[in-house]
């Protein structure tokens, strides 16, 4: 005659005393999951660490140009065209655009300027002149 406890013992053989499952499939799944989580954390950490050191499009020693303004005194023979040639640089599309800006800044309605007059001119550079 068989006792009913024999089957109960066989069914619980795959568990530890604490009742946790110790099957080979469960251990493999848990190990694989742990590896994936560890790999994800390492990749995320490396991405953050290396991403902050990416090379920028600008040389670090090269400072970006900024717009500055300067007051100049008009001398005999000066023209807006000559002033534009001296201060315009490559940041304005055309010399005409630069002259229009100088006229606008100074409230000029014509291109007539006179010796002794002061004008504010705009220019782009890495530092003020």
Automatic annotation (TrEMBL):
Name by which UniProt lists this protein: Cell division suppressor protein YneA
Pfam family, one: LysM
CDD domains reported for this sequence: LysM (cd00118)
Transmembrane regions: 33-55
SMART domains for this protein: LysM
Species, as recorded: Dorea formicigenerans
Ranges of residues in domain LysM: 70-121
Annotated GO biological process: cell division
Keyword entries, A-Z: Cell cycle, Cell division, Membrane, Transmembrane, Transmembrane helix
Superkingdom field: Bacteria
């Amino acid at each position: 005659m068989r006792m009913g406890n024999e089957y109960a013992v066989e069914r619980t053989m795959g568990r530890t005393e604490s009742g946790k499952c110790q099957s080979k499939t469960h251990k493999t799944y848990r190990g694989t999951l742990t590896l994936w989580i560890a790999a994800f954390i390492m990749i995320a950490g490396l991405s953050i660490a290396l991403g902050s050191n990416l090379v920028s499009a600008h040389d670090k020693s090269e400072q970006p140009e900024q717009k500055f303004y300067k007051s100049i005194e008009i001398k005999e023979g000066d023209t807006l065209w000559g002033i534009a040639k001296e201060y315009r640089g490559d940041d304005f599309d055309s010399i005409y655009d630069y002259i229009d800006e100088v006229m606008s800044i100074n409230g000029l309605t014509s291109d007539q300027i006179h010796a002794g007059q002061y004008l504010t001119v705009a220019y782009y550079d890495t530092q003020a002149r």
